[in-house]
Amino acid sequence: MDDYTIHIVDDEEAVRKSLAFMLTMNGLAVRVHESATAFLGIALNLRQAILVTDLRMPDMSGVDLIRRIRATGSQMPSIVITGHGDVPMAVDAMKAGAIDFIEKPFDDKTMMDAVRRAAELLTDDGARAETTEEIRGRLETLSERERQVLTCVITGQPNKAIAFNLEISPRTVEVHRANVMAKMKAHSLPELVRMSLLVGIK
After folding, report:
1. pTM
2. Domain 129-196's class?
3. Which residue, 35, 59, 73, 97, shows the most beta carbons closer than 10 Å to its own?
């Protein structure tokens, strides 16, 4: 078993139980918390911890929870899950410090991949630096128009708005978006946002 613990913060008991079961079956140590406030009370004393938090909770949002933790100087890797995702929410979560933004329902592989990325940040700062250089290299392969589309996408603009602002057709925007995803080797929009923020594109 790896030497870190995953802390699940979600106000829905069914979600906590199912996610904890899946992670435990994959050999990971897990603790569950029914509210952001409850977790915040112990967060500062944790070491080698990964946070998986729901976005919308009654007492405090997942993004606000991450901001509170980061304000203490903690670099705890955090993953946000939500049943109501969109690009502006994903960008907001990433800017707060989340390393991933996952929409429900998600499959086991999606969550496990996110956990592995989080674990790398706990164990190897060099891996993050190498990733940054790789992302910068991929950015250099984008055309000027693709860079413009990328910037629009990560600010949450829909295709029609991007098309209007760049004076191109929505179909052309779709082509550029597909090219950006392929060249950046991003498998999802949140992953593209994460990459962009990592190298300073906001």
Report:
1. 0.79
2. mainly alpha
3. 97
